[in-house]
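Need Restriction endonuclease type IV Mrr domain-containing protein's 3D structure for a figure. Predict it.
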Amino acid sequence: MTTLSPLTRRLYKLPHPPIPPSSSSHTTLPSFLAHASRTSLPLTSTTYIGTHYEYTIQSTLRSSALLLHRTGGRSDAGTDLVGTWHLPAHEHPPRVLVQCKALKTKLGPNIVRELEGTFSSAPVGWRGAGVIGMLVSPREATRGVREALTRSRFPLVWCLVGLEGRVRQVLWNERVEGVVGGGLGVGVVYHADAGELGDTRDAEARVTWDGEEVPGVDEVVGRMEDMQRRWFELWDVGEERWEEVLGVVERLFPFEKPLLYARDGRVSGLNEEEREVVRRELQRSNSTT
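Structure prediction for Restriction endonuclease type IV Mrr domain-containing protein:
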């Protein structure tokens, strides 16, 4: 599963995901399935169903530009997944806190209040402004849930995702648009087996931006790595000095990062004079070693 290296996260000012507890015996769906088989974990247990659903959601929502990490452990403070939402035209992707509710029972407004409570106990890197809460469940949002979502003072998203991983509905309140802007939308795709009338059971919701389907995480990561390479080429050094370059830039220009969506094709927010300051500092550092 494609992800970001620690260097890339640091370069793009992205929070580092929480470290899984040392007691954790799985970090991916395949390793969890192996663990479940090894320990004879009942397939009908809440632990199996809940954990399997969390890993399914982590994988499924990659197609919606969500790069998520499972928190794991009993001390997760109610948050199952954390990550970043890499929507087009966003140089600084909003951070997200995700709760997965693989429940058979009807969901009530209390789950919205529960999600709101995770904001105050969120992991380091997922606190403060620009954080979105997300509820994911295979159950439909009741009228009470939708009303609680609308009333909430927090930016919240609701996703209806089946246990098999098909996204069927995405809802959000106005406060989400205050974080990401007004381009967010949802389209519907009918699969080949849906029939001529478009059987809603085989429909899949797709997140869009300005009417276009958002790129998946693999495409996003590829773009970030390409811009990262172009950004480091500005400093005329080999890859063995990338860490050094980043340290110098962080010290001199702490807000600098590669630009992903500059209309004029620029990869850096620094002007030539500022870039020359960095080069001179690198030359000075190289001459003293």
